[in-house]
Design brief:
The protein is α/β, with parallel strands linked by helices and about 325 residues long. The protein has nine helices and 15 strands. Helix 1 packs across helix 9 and helix 4 runs parallel beside helix 6. The termini are close together. It binds NADP nicotinamide-adenine-dinucleotide phosphate.
Length: about 325
């Protein structure tokens, strides 16, 4: 598939910028590129493949004659403009949550379920960042030995809430160190020197929206629609890369050595597991990498009959959790 005209909506955001980096790193060829945003970024110049490109305003007429459009803005923007881009004949990729659970829309982490791309009908979705990182580690285990249940606690970075949240974390840290009141305009609470339950809305069941996305999207990507998954999502004062403490129970007894071998051979996984040096997955080492770091593999004594495995994973949620899924999908569809 050759990309003639490429359009990126939300190019100046955290995911948009990462997507531009990856397009360059992976030498994805396209004829022309148009960057779109809203008033705060319109007029800003970004470098794309060594050329300056000015961000223009998103309007409904921007998609005519376009081959590929990638939406990296909010779900509301996607709900409004994705149908218009499809109507104009473009192949559309969406990193927002707007269409992820629609059965006819492939929800892809290409190393895990890239085969689902074959069934696309013009729209392809990339999953929630925590779910994408989680399935990269779970898929090779689940394929070898079916999961019976999964428990996950996340430690999510500020950039998962967008660029303005990163700026606010820095401003908060500076304010606290200067003995001043930290600003809380983007995030609901002080994140610097603190942790808090993920800021998404809590529903009538007590689950927040991020937790619901992790459960539903993990089940969909693993093709395990009834897999019991328990999740607690927490925001931590880290700039980039989400970490997750994962406890798996399998249907059969498992050995840590076998699970480590499966993970070491899995695409998109990098083992970091050195107990002697207390060196395990950390967000500062996962940031700006494409692989999900996996380690602290150990038998879980809380699980019955030797069927439990505990692990710690850390992945760049802007790469593995968002833009990399789009770029890998484009690469797969080119061949
Ligand atoms: N951050 C992550 O780790 C992550 C991971 C997976 C998925 N996602 C999803 O990816 C999407 C983007 O997230 P992000 O973190 O990159 O957010 P962000 O840093 O806040 O960037 C959002 C971008 O969208 C643009 N935008 C917002 N409203 C717009 C509108 N009405 N018209 C045109 N452009 C508009 C913004 O333009 P301005 O620059 O002009 O404000 C900005 O460039 C979200 O749907 C998010 O849920 C994020």
């Amino acid at each position: 598939m050759a990309i003639g005209k490429l359009v990126i909506v939300g190019a100046a955001g955290a995911v948009g910028r990462t997507l531009l980096e990856l397009l360059e790193e992976r030498s994805i060829a396209f004829g022309s590129i148009t960057l779109l945003g809203r008033s705060s970024s319109v007029g800003e110049t970004m470098s794309v493949g060594g050329q300056d490109c000015v961000i223009e305003e998103l309007t409904p007429d921007r998609f005519r004659g376009t081959d590929v459009v990638v939406f990296c803005a909010s779900a509301d923007v996607s709900r409004e403009f994705v149908p218009i881009a499809r109507e104009a004949g473009a192949l559309v990729f969406d990193v927002s949550s707007a269409f992820r659970m629609q059965a006819e829309v492939p929800l892809v982490v290409p190393p895990v379920n890239g085969a689902t791309l074959a069934n696309h009908q013009g729209l392809i979705a990339a999953p929630n960042c925590s779910a994408a990182i989680l399935v990269t580690a779970l898929a090779p285990l689940h394929a070898a030995c079916p999961l019976e249940r999964v428990t996950v606690c996340t430690y999510q970075a500020a950039s998962g809430a967008g660029l303005r949240a990163v700026e606010e974390l820095s401003a908060q840290a500076a304010a606290v160190l200067a003995g001043k009141k930290p600003p809380t305009e983007v995030l609901p609470h002080q994140l610097a020197f603190n942790v808090f339950s993920h800021e998404s809305a809590v529903d009538e069941t007590g689950m927040n929206l991020e937790e619901r996305k992790v459960i539903e999207e993990t089940r969909r990507i693993l093709d395990a629609p009834t897999l019991p998954i328990s999740v607690t999502c927490v925001r931590v004062p880290v700039v980039r890369a989400h970490t997750e403490a994962v406890h798996c129970v399998f249907r059969e007894a498992v050995s840590v050595e076998r699970m480590q071998t499966l993970l070491a051979d899995a695409p998109g996984v990098w083992i970091v597991d050195d107990p002697a040096a207390s060196h395990f997955p950390m967000p500062i080492e996962a940031a700006n990498r494409n692989e999900v770091l996996v380690g602290r593999l150990r038998a879980d004594p809380g699980a019955p009959e030797g069927r439990g495995l505990a692990l710690l994973i850390s992945g760049d949620q802007l790469r593995r959790g968002a833009a990399l899924n789009i770029v890998e999908a484009l690469e797969m569809m080119r061949h």
